Amino acid sequence: MKRTGMLVLCTAVLISACAQGPAPVAGLLSAQGGAGKPPTGGSTAAARAFLPNPVQTSGDESLTDAKDSASAVPGSAYYPVTLSHLDGSGYLSGDYAKVISETGTPVYGSGPFNFTRDQDGFEQIMAYFWVTEAQKYLQALGFGSELPGVNNRPQQIRVGQYGQDNSFQTDKQDLLRFGKGGVDDAEDGEVIVHEYGHAVQAAQVPGFGSNLEAGSIGEAFGDYLALTVADAVARANGAPIRTPLPCLMDWDSTSYTTSVPHCIRRTDTTKHYPESVVGEVHADGEIWSRALWDIRQALGARTADRIIVNAQFRFTPDVSFTAAAQATVDTALAMYGAATAGPVRTAFVNRGFLK
User: Fold this and answer.
1) Residue ranges of domains in the chain
2) Whole-angstrom distance, CA of residue 171 vs CA of residue 168
3) 27-74 residue pLDDT tens
4) Which of 255, 262, 289, 314 could crosslink 327 through cysteines, CB 3.0-4.6 Å?
5) Is 89 in a helix, a strand, or coil?
6) Could you confirm whether domain 2-351 is CATH 3.40.50.12780?
């Protein structure tokens, strides 16, 4: 869930204030692979995507949506990528993501898929690519081999047909849904991975986020996962990072923020528990995400991410900040020993979660 001004992205498990999306259209899953089109048999396809968004790679904070205009974003903001783990149907369906779109024609074929942002196919490509890359990143950390798997199955995704500027994850239909308005949500890779973070937590702890503190942890983890996956994927594909890494969703936020750099939220605020708590999951989540950022700074991305994700198996749906912090320290100790657990504990002490 993400919110700034009137913008809300939420996980449906969380709090009654989060918007609930309409139920999936009956039969749509089976219909997407139909229409008599033959399977292509391909497991990969060439495409182009934002890595993760045009503001971050260009450093140009003056970019605006311009009513979904193709000319609003320079061609240099698109990067060649490979869609992987496709199931051979010719659609954007594979081992870790299945895109279901009611807006425009579903992407089909063997590629290359060189859409621009004004075409519905571009957002479909973005959704498939970023969810798949997020899962591949988790597996590269050892989840699914050395460590338990996390959401390593086809994640259903609806792109662009939700009429509100609102995106969310819902457990009930096992679905990620990305809306339209301003910069369409699926144009920003960090928005996509943020929502996937909720799906990861729901797979680890069914019903996660049932109270304010657990919900805040959920929003913080979505932000953190977006940051760390976007960083890894951008570097792997040769895309520069020209805005502050702790600044989340630089492109999507241009429609709602006036200050520069444009950020929905940041992971490097000075917020502290309990005096910074305001009773809103996105704002309070910035306290937790700062602790995660500090762990990353102290230990490096790979070690930090393995600890942070693995610790969530110890969480409960209504876990408190203090309990979650202690569980993360305990996980670090079990995985790497006292020398590594020390900086983890320090990060949580500095935010006020542990004494």
Assistant:
1) 2-351
2) 10
3) 333 334 445 689 999 999 999 999 999 999 999 999 999 988 999 999
4) 314
5) coil
6) no
